[in-house]
From TrEMBL:
Organism: Brumimicrobium oceani
Span of domain Mechanosensitive ion channel transmembrane helices 2/3: 65-105
Record's protein name: Mechanosensitive ion channel protein MscS
Keyword hit for Cell membrane: yes
The Mechanosensitive ion channel MscS C-terminal domain, residue ranges: 179-261
Principal place of residence: membrane
InterPro entries assigned to the protein according to its UniProt record, in alphabetical order: LSM_dom_sf (IPR010920), MS_channel_1st (IPR049142), MS_channel_C (IPR049278), MSC_TM_helix (IPR008910), MscS_archaea/bacteria_type (IPR045275), MscS_beta-dom_sf (IPR023408), MscS_channel_2nd (IPR006685), MscS_channel_C_sf (IPR011066)
Protein's membrane topology: Multi-pass membrane protein
Mechanosensitive ion channel MscS domain location: 107-171
A GO CC annotation given for this chain: plasma membrane
Lineage, top ranks: Bacteria, Pseudomonadati, Bacteroidota, Flavobacteriia, Flavobacteriales
Length: 279
């Protein structure tokens, strides 16, 4: 009896496999062929975006979104081949989409944030930005996340929703930036002489822009010294190197002319205690 049972079970299993075999094979072929086609389409898309000189941030976003959509269509096609009715599949997909949407509200917000970033362009790939207490260069803008590389080599990944809802300080959107230097000299120094020395120091480097012209101001007369402000304009990508160079050049020029940065001093005097009266 047991032997007869297993023989019948074997026959039914073989019949089942034989009945679904062609369908399963078709679905498998469709899956493999679909993956192959998607890879080709992605290469074609990359070449197209490269030829059209598409902005890097938009390029990465479109590639990510296209990959997501193509694989969604592929899995839907495989499901239909396996016998899932279109209406049932749409209903199932819709229900799953609602469930996933409720579970991934943050991801949907990040997707919307990515669209806003691409639409209004507060920054692009390659820009130096300061956002959410992070300063770095934008490396990539995906459909959900923005990746920023800091100056010390860290890669910070931020949700697009947070970035889109934050104040973004883009420090390379404009072609030029102003280098501001503040320093102090003694109250008895000649202001015109100081301005001439500092102006000469600022113009030493050839990368300092001639327009707008550098300028030097007496910013404040303080209790112990004079506060001087010197400003010059440079290309945005050269801001930090030029800041350090200008600071060093001004310090050396002041030292060469014997002008020192004053240090506040205080004099403290002690009263001599009065002698105790003798009895």
């Amino acid at each position: 009896m047991n032997e007869q049972f297993f023989l019948e079970l074997k026959d039914k299993l073989l019949d089942f496999l034989w009945s679904i075999g062609p369908t399963f094979l078709k679905a498998l072929v469709a899956l493999v062929l679909g993956v192959f086609i998607i890879r080709i389409l992605k290469k074609v898309l990359k070449r197209f975006l490269k030829r059209t000189k598409t902005e890097l941030s938009l390029k990465t976003f479109v590639e990510s979104l296209t990959t997501f959509v193509l694989y969604g269509v592929l899995f839907a096609t495989v499901g239909i081949i396996l016998g899932i009715e279109t209406t049932s599949f749409i209903a199932m997909f819709g229900g799953a989409a609602i469930a996933v949407g409720l579970a991934l509200q943050g991801s949907l917000a990040n997707f919307a944030g990515g669209v806003l970033i691409l639409a209004f362009k507060p920054f692009r790939v390659g820009d130096l930005i300061y956002v959410n207490k992070t300063l770095g260069v934008v490396e990539q803008v995906d459909i959900l996340y923005t990746r920023i590389k800091t100056h010390d080599g860290r890669m910070v990944t931020m949700p697009n929703g947070n970035v889109a809802n934050s104040d973004v300080d883009n420090r390379t959107m404009n072609n030029t930036r102003r280098v501001d230097l503040n320093f102090r000299v003694a109250l008895n120094e000649d202001v015109d002489k100081i301005k001439a020395i500092v102006m000469e120091a600022l113009l030493v480097h050839p990368d300092v822009l001639k327009y707008p012209e550098p300028d030097i101001w007496l910013d404040n007369i303080e209790e112990y010294n004079l506060k001087i402000t010197a400003r010059s304009w440079v290309k945005s990508e050269e801001y930090w190197p030029m800041y350090w160079i200008q600071l060093e050049n001004v310090k050396k020029a002041l030292d060469a002319h014997g002008i020192k940065i004053p240090v506040p001093k205080r004099e403290i005097s002690y009263a001599t205690p009065a002698e105790e009266p003798k009895l």
